Fold Serine/threonine protein kinase.
Amino acid sequence: MIRRSQVRNAATAAAVLALLAAGTQQALAAPAIDDQGFVDSWASCASPSTAVAFGSTATSRVAVCKSSDGQYQYRGVRVRDGAKLAVDAEPSGNNGFVAEGDGVSYTVTPSALLVSVGEKVIRDEPWQTYSGPEAPASAAPTAESSSEPSTPLPPPLPAEQGHG
């Protein structure tokens, strides 16, 4: 004979599992992108600026914005904690962009995000998604392909919400 408490416990366990599954799916959902960068993220360009490059790596989201007066800005978000950075940038060779803040250089190329101090490369992160000048065919989002990276990033962090 099945007791009411066993039915209640089973129902409670099923409800908890359903909530966990829904939360996991939401956490694994890739962030949405548009022509300005990542929707509702710090790594996007506010109009009238336009995104000239944007992408995501395993640990970062980045947008390089060009203002109406021709100035460039690097906008980066560290995925694990939502830390944000906005610094002036400039075009560099190889269809890339370079930004510097507090002695750290952030180099956006069509293949990777390089973070360095002086000559020492701290991180060399290949893009999971990228849109910009001469994007590699394997990483560039297209109308036919999904804009989701191969390893989905979590949705925008609370620190990112509302930008865009």
Observations:
- The first strand starts at residue 33 and ends at 34.
